[in-house]
Amino acid sequence: MDQDKRTGLAAGVAAYLTWGFLPIFWKSLGVVPPDEILAWRVAGSAVVAWAYLVFRRKPLSKSAMHSGVLVRIAAAAMMIGGNWGLFIWAVASERILEASLGYYINPLVNVVLGVVFFSERLGRKRLIAIGLATAAVVIMTIDAGTFPWVSILLALLFGFYGLTVKGLPSQIDSIEVLAWETAFIGPLFAGYLAYRGFGAGLHLFGSGPTVTFLLILAGPVTLFPLWLFGVGAKRIPLSIMGFLQYLAPTLMLLLGVLVYGEPFSPLKGAAFILVAVALLLYTVTLRDS
After folding, report:
1. pTM as predicted
2. Which residue among 14, 106, 219, 256 is least packed, with the fewest CB closer than 10 Å?
């Protein structure tokens, strides 16, 4: 493996490890309501993304100025904002295992979206993988007594986000996409922070220096793994990135069970085993393609 691929592999591993450990970061902000955390995350991401674009002294892509592209970016902004907010809420509500399952299922959701929107061939192995994931959802429903909507909605939001971004011109890189996304939803959350500041009060300065520091970091910790992912995706094959993506939900699963003591019943274990087998089949299809 040459130096360029080693750099890409290191960046990819670092990106998914960062995403996997993010529940610790959001859990450390337990005194702050999830909606306020999301607002700081969006606002912080906007500041960091636009500051990065200014300091790199590279003209913005003219492709982003087309009305059709702006509509697509606005739709992507709503989806990624919803994904961020739901994940933060899931962590605060002790539902890290459900969030983990959602990100395990996400690659299989992408397969279905590829069939529906791009007429991609499903193949026997991928069809079996989707069947196993569906069985896992049924088992989780039986175990909890309710449909695992957190898992499914996280997977769908991120899947449709990826589908929407996939249609953007290649000249717009990932950081610029995020900058435009936050430009659409940022004012909404900035207004919300202003509203809280005049009403119930903000936690930025009223809950101790640790909370203040973590809220300020909400933007950077969002962009840092995204930047690492971009570095890795350009340097290593899709099959390797496809395998690395399982690092994040695996870490979330371990954190939920071993660190935060979320219940892990035999039925939950069976569901996760089915998903693991499904993802193994999916990974084999990546290698063969």
Report:
1. 0.90
2. 14
